[in-house]
Design goal:
single chain, 280 residues, mainly alpha
């Protein structure tokens, strides 16, 4: 039987989701760690996916003008070849880049909700993928603005997004690192990462809504109101996190997050090895 989630847990986990979704430190990994360390249970993959709707709503609001412009340009471009500008192409880049994670997420949904949430795996991914972020930061030329984005960039960043299906990797970390390897400026890689996440995360959250109310032993059981409040909290905190991160990456490297990921991963491994927390 699944444990019943308390209001305190729902609010805390909603805040954690909002704070960590856009930082390259893995929101799913943090929700798994926080729910185990503080509450002795797993919030569940479905709860994670649903509260991500809050953070994606924050993206929709924050980038509303860009999103409306891209969608309008995409439809215009379908009918008029002369209107196929950067925004039109951007619409296609997001669509094409979303296909891989949509397919893999559907095929491996059971593994994502169970075995992939093992804390040994989460901690290992926090540490191992920090090396990828560090190498991308070191080797990336950071020369190309978002106006220079190509279909190839979209496909590669879309494939990188698939790594985020493993808790501990980080969606923004994977896509932004891919962008840096491709020579994009840091701000361009992060901005496209935000846009790229919208369809995949929104679809995942809506798809997981029924399971969130019936976790079947794979997570704590939350009420509809708790899910709603947690999602709203994730929206508010997530909106602030977007604004902060875009300003931060304009003047700072991603190395700051690398050190944090390594320290957190080692801490979790220490707690697991000492028997303080359970891996499953």
């Amino acid at each position: 039987m699944s444990d019943t989630m308390t209001w305190a847990q729902a609010i805390v986990l909603g805040a954690v989701q909002g704070l960590t979704e856009f930082l390259p430190i893995s929101s799913s990994g943090h929700l798994r760690i926080v729910s185990e360390v503080w509450f002795g249970d797993d919030a569940g993959a479905s709860f994670t996916a649903v509260t991500q709707l809050g953070t994606e709503a924050a993206v929709l609001v924050f980038f509303a003008k860009d999103i409306v412009r891209i969608i309008a340009a995409w439809f215009r471009g379908l009918l008029n070849k002369e209107a196929r500008n950067l925004d039109y192409r951007m619409g296609w880049y997001v669509i094409i880049a979303t296909i891989p994670i949509g397919a893999l997420g559907f095929l491996f949904k059971d593994e994502i909700r169970t075995g992939a949430r093992n804390l040994w795996l989460v901690a290992s991914m926090l540490i191992l993928f920090s090396a990828v972020i560090a190498i991308a930061e070191k080797m990336g030329r950071k020369e190309r603005p978002i106006e220079k984005l190509t279909t190839r960039d979209g496909v590669i960043m879309g494939l990188a997004q698939c790594l985020a299906l493993i808790p501990g990797v980080s969606r923004s970390g994977a896509t932004a690192s891919a962008g840096l390897f491709l020579g994009l400026k840091r701000e361009a890689a992060v901005r496209f990462s935000f846009l790229l996440a919208i369809p995949a995360v929104t679809a995942s959250g809506l798809f997981s809504l029924p399971d969130a109310f019936e976790p079947s032993g794979d997570g704590m059981e939350s009420s509809g109101m708790q899910l709603l409040v947690a999602t709203i909290v994730a929206f508010v905190v997530g909106y602030a996190a977007i604004a902060w991160l875009l300003k931060f990456v304009a003047n700072h490297s991603l190395y700051w997050f690398v050190g944090y990921r390594v320290l957190l991963g080692l801490l979790v491994m220490g707690l697991l090895a000492g028997g303080v927390i359970s891996a499953t």
